[in-house]
Amino acid sequence: MNPIALRLLNQQLICPQFDKPEEVVNYMGAIQAQEYRLMRWGVAMRTKKPSVKAFKQAYDSGQIIRLHLLRGTWQLVSAEDYWPLLDLCSAKALAVIKGWMRSNNISIPEEEVTEIREILVRTAAEKSSVTKEDFVQALAEKDIHMDEHRLSYHLRYAELSGTLCSGDLLPMKATYALAADKVKNRNKMNRDATLAMLARKFFRSRQPVTLEDFVWWSGLNINDCRRGMELLGDYLHVETVCTPCLQPRREFYFTADCRTRGFRKGRYLLIPPYDEYLIGYKSRDVVLSPDYSHKAHNNSGIFQPIIAHDGVICGNWSPFAKDCQAAFFMGEHDTDLREEWTRYKKFQEK
Fold first, then answer.
1. Which tens digit of pLDDT belongs to each residue from 172-184?
2. Phi, psi angles (nearest 5°) of residue 301
3. pLDDT for res 336
4. What Å distances lie between residue 293 and 11, 230, 237, 278, 298, CA to CA?
């Protein structure tokens, strides 16, 4: 059993099964979207024919939503999952954000939250798709001035209350819209059903994984994670895996419909920063040697664009360079990345 090959297959990084970006997001449950420009490639590279125009269409039409959610960080979720995941995760995400505020000595009283939110809602209703600069101007018209850091917390509060979510996709700047206008289908689920749904999507799309990976990725407490797994019943099974890259032996969970066929050797992948291939796991040593982890991310949570060869992280690349630029830090790679670079560039044109 090759855990690396299974992750590539089930993460849709090789032999993708989906045609549309929104299908990928729905399948994955939630996708980290820290880097506004490169989140598009992170989704599209998991489709059969990557297209930035297809991503924009799904994003602008509200089939893909961006907001701060799991772990209080930027995520992409499907319209179908938006309201249930907000109900499940918003309280924990809000606690995380308030913890960050305390560490930065920021306190926002409820009266301020109410006053600012009324202005945010009115501005979004008038312009439908609003930049942060639009909000700054609207606040200034009311003689309210605050630094960008404080405004960001107000926007996160509004996201986690189900008031604001992503607006239209712009080349460089994030926009906001009223969630009630953007996400028409107010899908409701009870807590157990949502826990089971989130667990199913996580284990199916990122297997093999550990319980610790699920706790880390979801940001939920361990009891909620165990409850979600319990609700899946026989759909999940556990195996003890020992390979040369895994010491000591580790217990991994697999689903009944785990993809096992389609892996081919020799494939290079140009993976964006903050991609689920790394950030979706607490322990990343399955695909990344601990000796080189600093090349992929630092201890402050900053992730770099990475190159994978047969699923093993071995280098870095430059997404915004005119020509393909790669720096390998592991293994010998007497090759160019023309095929994958061409795929990446075609994605930007389609």
1. 999 999 999 999 8
2. 85, 20
3. 74
4. 21, 33, 29, 10, 8
Please state the domain extents for the chain: 16-182, 191-255, 268-349
pLDDT value at residue 334: 65
Query: What is the Cα–Cα distance from 179 to 103, expressed in whole angstroms?
Result: 29
Residue 72: alpha-carbon gap to chain centroid: 11
Question: Given a cut of 70, is residue 246 above it in pLDDT?
Answer: no
**Half-sphere exposure at residue 262, Cβ-oriented, CA atoms within 13 angstroms:** 15
Spell out the CATH class of 191-255: mainly alpha
pTM of the predicted model as reported, rounded to 2 decimal places? 0.95
Please report, to the nearest 10 degrees, the dihedral formed by the alpha carbons of residues 89, 94, 100, 101 taken in order.
Answer: 170
Angle in degrees, CA 279, 280, 286, rounded to 5: 85
* Contacts of 148 by beta carbon, 8 Å cutoff, 6+ apart: 132
Burial 232-242 (b: 16+ CB within 10 A, else e): beebbeeeebe
* Terminal alpha carbon distance of the chain: 37
pLDDT one-digit tens code per residue, 311-325 = 999 999 999 999 999
Distance (Å, rounded) from C-alpha 280 to C-alpha 71? Answer: 12
DSSP state of 70: G
Round to whole Å and give the CA distance between 169 and 131: 11
Instruction: Give the pLDDT confidence of 128-167 residue by residue, as tens digits.
Output: 899 999 999 999 999 999 999 999 999 999 999 999 999 9
- Are 319 and 38 in contact by the 8 Å Cβ rule? The answer is yes
Is residue 16 reached through a cis peptide bond, with omega within 30 degrees of 0 on the bond before it? no
273/303 Cα distance (integer angstroms): 5
Looking at the chain, how many residues does it have? 350
